[in-house]
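Late entry, evening session. Most of the bench is empty. Finally got around to the prediction I had been postponing all week. Sequence below, unchanged from the version circulated by S.P.
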Amino acid sequence: MDWRLHWLEAEGDLTPWRDVILAEVEAARTVIAHLMPPCKLDILIRRRPGQVIPVIGMGGTAWGKYLFDLSIDPGNPNLEPSLKDGALRRLVAHEAHHCMRNVAVGYGETLGEALVSEGLAGRFVEQLFGTAPEPWENAMAEATLRAHLPDEALLASSAYNHADWFYCRNGRLPCWLGYTLGYRIVGDWLATAPAPDAATWAGVPAEAVLAVARETGMLANPGRA
């Protein structure tokens, strides 16, 4: 198996969830393999009480080209129903896409690049499983989204606050704004492009996606008066 699971249990025994985690990781790997060869990965699995996405009781973080972690919070009442709903396999596919994009072109340093990388991972999950957007990918009304669109200077900035844009922190921006905007602009790009092949899913340049968003009016187009 090209994916190796590492069980980190200093914070608590994972035995009660081991079988379901193994099954869900394998389900994600199998579905991805229908579209592209899954890259080699090390996956860290650990308990992180209070350090997960609250609405699903789990979370994930990609750490580069070949490593991501999965966290679960057994004390979160949303964990069990989320496991039954397939949230874990979708989370695995999302983080695996980040790793594959890191191999191809990198996650990116600017806000615009981060929006594209997160949107691609979300739409990749949609492509694989035919599922609706996750709560963080459809987190606000259209009017709220459009009221908080970044300008060109911010899109090109590497000094943006990632936590403000993508996590529910500080209250300066709507919760999950970055995920919702990224999902939207990648959806607009997909609507204008042929079905992506494996290389495009992982390696499409961020600027190609952002250019479509400017043409559709989702982002400001500096070339228009």
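Two things to note before I forget:
The mean pLDDT is 94.
The CA atoms of residues 44 and 69 lie 4 Å apart.
Will write this up properly tomorrow.
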